[in-house]
Amino acid sequence: MTDIATAARRPGEQALSALGLGAPALDPADASPHTFPGGGRWRTEIPSCEGPEALAVILKESSRLDVPIHRISQGSGVWMLTDAEITEMVEATAERDIELCLFTGPRGTWDIGGSVRSDSRGGGLRARGHDAVAGCVEDAVRATELGVKCLLVADEGVLWTLHRARAAGIIPTDTTLKVSALIGPVNPAAYAVYERLGADSLNVPSDLTLDHLTEIRRVSAAPMDMYIEAPDDLGGYIRMYEVAELIRRGAPLYLKFGLSKAPGIYPWGTHLRDVTLDTARERVRRGRLALDLLARHGADTDMAPLGTRLPGPLDRFPAESATD
């Protein structure tokens, strides 16, 4: 494995050093000691792929721009896709050995509760009540029966329930569970709790500092997902020039190529077709820009092999069944 702390060139390093403005040397103690199983410190993800047509655009553009993709995720939800659409997406991603991740069930912003629209945003994106949890489970069972291997969740109770369902064989045991950026943990203690509840990868807010990532890596090796460019409703942060350092501190890390200054498309429908396809195409281009920047700084090594998806051994709470 390349020592990123010594091999990578930091942005503007030579020019600033010549002007007496060089940055302090990197501290090797800040670097994450963790990798993905099978090797590699980073993987790639294209988010907000809302259906087969958007997926086709992403796959075509990734081939044209030579953007490697490990995972493609969707944000509207399993319930917004027909069985035929899910099957088409499963087959298309399988042909390229890409993991497909679909969002589960009802969320607080889409049901009758008003607290999420209050100034405090109480309740957030979580599943309100038994029926909402049941809807998420229904989506999970349906999606996995159609061949989906990764589920995106935005509620701690849903995460724990699906982890128990996975342990009990109700959904396939190799299903991976991904925590949404909408409830992403912001401290190492919370990150470790999500891991123990069954998370296989965790979105963290894109405004976490580099020191925050180092703190998390001292307590957990669970894969981390981070928007290199975040949608506006998640802050609109753009951290393109920090990608090498984000990898060094946060590995194993999924680089998510989001898009700021773009209209919201959840829940998706054909009335949003044009903007959905245009933004899907641009997300891949943003990925190319980030990868080019990594290459210019000599930090584009240690990508995990394409086709890898599992997280490796993680810490869990005991998942006893209700009858134990």
Word description of this protein:
α3 (52-65) packs parallel to α10, α5 (129-145) packs across α6 (156-167) and α8 (210-217) runs parallel beside α9. This protein is 36% helix and 11% strand. It is globular. The protein has 10 helices and 8 strands. It has helices at 4-7, 13-18, 52-65, 83-95, 129-145, 156-167, 188-197, 210-217, 243-250, 273-296; strands at residues 42-46, 71-73, 99-103, 150-153, 176-179, 201-203, 224-229, 253-257. Strands 1-2-3-4-5-6-7-8 form an 8-stranded parallel barrel, surrounded by 6 helices. It has 324 residues and is α/β, with parallel strands linked by helices.
Task: Tell me the number of helical segments per DSSP (H or I, 4 or more residues long).
Answer: 10
Query: Can you give the mean pLDDT?
Result: 90
Q: Using only CA atoms, what is the Rg? A: 19 Å
What structural class is derived from the secondary structure elements? alpha/beta
Low-confidence stretches: none
Total strand count, please? 8
Report strand order across the widest sheet.
1-2-3-4-5-6-7-8
List the helices and strands and how they pair.
Layout: H1 4-7, H2 13-18, E1 42-46, H3 52-65, E2 71-73, H4 83-95, E3 99-103, H5 129-145, E4 150-153, H6 156-167, E5 176-179, H7 188-197, E6 201-203, H8 210-217, E7 224-229, H9 243-250, E8 253-257, H10 273-296
Parallel strand pairs: 1-2, 1-8, 2-3, 3-4, 4-5, 5-6, 6-7, 7-8
Summed up:
It contains ten helices and eight strands.
Features:
single chain; 324 residues; alpha/beta; eight-stranded parallel barrel; globular
